Every structure is written in C-alpha cells, then in structure tokens.
C-alpha cells in the first residue's frame, strides 16, 4: 500500500509540473508559408496575430480571412499536440497490475 501511495504522489507531482509547463507554453500556427502567424497558449488563449503586409489586399479579403483561420487551426493543432506530449504519459495512470483494482 505504501508503494501505491508513493506512486500516486509521484504522479501528482508530475501532473502539477506538466500543468505548469503547459500554462507557460505558447505555440505558433502558420498559413500561407508564414504569411499569417497566430500564437496561442497551450490552453488555447490567443496571444498574437502577425500578418505579412504582402497578403493584405482590400480587393481580396476572403483570402486573408482564410489564412487567419488556417493559422488558427494550425496553432490549435500544435497546442493539442503539446498537451498530449506533456499529459499523455500521465493519462495512463498508475500501474495497478496484479492488484485486482478497476482499470488494471
């Protein structure tokens, strides 16, 4: 039982560390070969949008809108990958094999 408690404490510490790293992490998504960049936190809070002046055409607003949406989609995908990378190993839970506990 002591081993299970130690393992649970270790997992809790790892989870807290991963959450702290994710809170500070930012990812950037791109579209149009970098003409539009969107930076978000790993928690998907927007931080910045950068638009290359070359892509700003008053006659073609739809392309710019598509590029912003594409960059945002890319940023969200990257944030989700980062979350999986940091939290994935912890989501497996403790090794309860052989104890007859649910999830083992």
What would you note in describing this structure?
- The chain is α+β, with helices and mostly antiparallel strands and 104 residues long.
- 52% of the residues lie in helices and 17% in strands.
- The protein has 2 helices and 3 strands, in the order H-E-E-E-H.
- It has helices at residues 2-24, 61-91, and strands at 26-31, 36-41, 46-51.
- A 3-stranded antiparallel sheet has the order 1-2-3.
- A hairpin with a 4-residue loop joins strand 1 and strand 2.
- Helix 1 runs antiparallel to helix 2 (61-91).
- The relative contact order is 0.18.
- The model is unreliable at 94-104 (pLDDT under 50).
- Belongs to the YbaB/EbfC family.
- Binds to DNA and alters its conformation. May be involved in regulation of gene expression, nucleoid organization and DNA protection.
- This is Nucleoid-associated protein WIS52_11195.
- Homodimer.
- Summarize the amount of helix as a percent range: 40-55%
Could you spell the SSE succession in H and E letters?
Answer: HEEEH
- Output the strand order for the largest sheet: 1-2-3
Broad CATH class of one domain: Alpha Beta
Mean of residue pLDDT? 85
SSE-based structural type: alpha+beta
How many helices does DSSP assign? 2
Distance between the termini: 15 Å
Largest sheet: 3 strands, antiparallel
Low-pLDDT runs of 5+ residues are: 94-104
Proper CATH architecture of one domain:
2-Layer Sandwich
How many DSSP-defined strands?
3
The share of residues in extended strands comes to 15-25%
Protein name: Nucleoid-associated protein WIS52_11195
InterPro entries: YbaB-like_sf, YbaB/EbfC
Organism: Pseudonocardia nematodicida
Function: Binds to DNA and alters its conformation. May be involved in regulation of gene expression, nucleoid organization and DNA protection.
